[in-house]
Amino acid sequence: MAPPEFWLLVAFTAGVGAAGLWYGFRWWRWARLIEDTPTSQVRSAAQGLVELVGTARGMPGAPVIAPLSRRQCVWWTYEVERRTQGRKGRSSWERIRFDTSDALFHLQDATGDCIIDPEGAQVLPSQRNTWYGSTAIPEAGPPARRGLHVFGRKYRYRESRLHDGDPLYAIGWFSTERGHTSPDRDAETALLLREWKRDHSSLLKRFDTDGDGTLSLAEWERAREAAHAEVESQRRIASVQPGVHVLRKPDREHPLLLAATQQGKLATRYRIRALVGLAVFVSAAGLLGYVFIGS
Length: 295
Description:
It is built from 5 helices and 14 strands. The protein is of the alpha+beta class. It has 2 domains: 226 residues, no CATH class; 56 residues, no CATH class. The strands form 3 sheets. A 5-stranded mixed barrel has the order 2-7-8-13-12. Strand 5 and strand 6 form a beta hairpin. Helix 1 runs antiparallel to helix 5 and helix 2 packs across helix 4.
């Protein structure tokens, strides 16, 4: 083997081995995280990294529609690929469009609801479809029956979805957000006064007691006291309202995992992936050893 080809083979094998090792340890750590994190209920979950099990539910308002199949769901991801002709007449698929939903949805269990923010999540969906067509945007959704629809078709469509009512396993960063999170009452009072100033006529009508068209120091002080009292009233109301629970991606070290499957099956899936990754690393290391010893 010529030196350029030799070192190209070495670099490729080393890269594949390094990727196998990295993904192997990553997936093994995720499997351990799933197995070691106890399941919590929404109502009593602690703030921080938690595991929840429930049902996927859509948010109120406009429905979430998957772009390719036009089916209603709570989360989607898709890609469109185009067939290209390479050297020696070999064809391959080139990705030309892809996107992932960032719409919020609910996880609902017997004790309450938690909003799921899917940004950055690793998702194992309940539905995956692959089908083929002749246009960059599919004219119809996936066929009812699977078959050989690839011949003569220039485009391939892939779409994955979570639907309303799907069982949902989730592990991520849990936080409860309330209406008033700022500890600075003076800042909230100043903000409310600024809003009142925008409607100058209403401000004068409320606090210009002498009718001279301006607010004196005493009248302005009464306006400030009224704004402070309204802020305190709003904070008291917010303090007795239930908070909004949100689950999102924790950080770079921990994943946000969402899956329409059971905990045990999910952990087993990541363990198998981890073993495959480590097997790739061992195979690559063995091949490198053989190449160098043989050379």
